[in-house]
Amino acid sequence: MTNRSLAGKTPPTTTRLAGLLAGLALGAALLAGCSSEGASTDCGLDACTVTFDRGVDARANILGVEARLVETQDDVATIEVGGEQLSLTVGQQAADVGGLAVTLDSVTDSEVKVRIARNGG
């Protein structure tokens, strides 16, 4: 039987715990990077749902870009994402903007809900 000294070595459970905590901290930092005005956001690591209030200057900074509600008419919303304007209809296939997939989820009298995801996410 061989006795090995653990002096100077970190036990595996401590290493795993440190990795988990670092991952959680990174995730929290990414989510904290979302901000909005006249809108609310619900973000994960690869996608955000942005609910814009109608009738105000609504905008949100998510996934490294600014998204802004430009105008709505009936079930069509014009959204600006990363400086590019898109006219979207509810149920339309996602539009690609700079590596992001943008989908119009719903339009009501009071709000416009958009999903913005990293392509593949």
Q: Please, could you describe this protein's structure?
A:
- This protein has 121 residues and is of the alpha+beta class.
- It is built from 1 helix and 10 strands, in the order αββββββββββ.
- The strands form 2 sheets. It has a 5-stranded antiparallel sheet with strand order 1-4-5-6-7, with no helix packed on it.
- Strand 2 and strand 3 form a beta hairpin.
- The N and C termini lie far apart (51 Å).
Task: Please name the defining characteristics of this protein.
alpha+beta, 121 residues, 17% helix, five-stranded antiparallel β-sheet, globular
What layout of secondary structure does this protein have?
Layout: H1 12-32, E1 35-37, E2 39-43, E3 47-53, E4 59-62, E5 65-73, E6 76-81, E7 84-89, E8 95-97, E9 100-107, E10 111-118
Antiparallel strand pairs: 1-4, 2-3, 3-10, 4-5, 5-6, 6-7, 8-9, 9-10
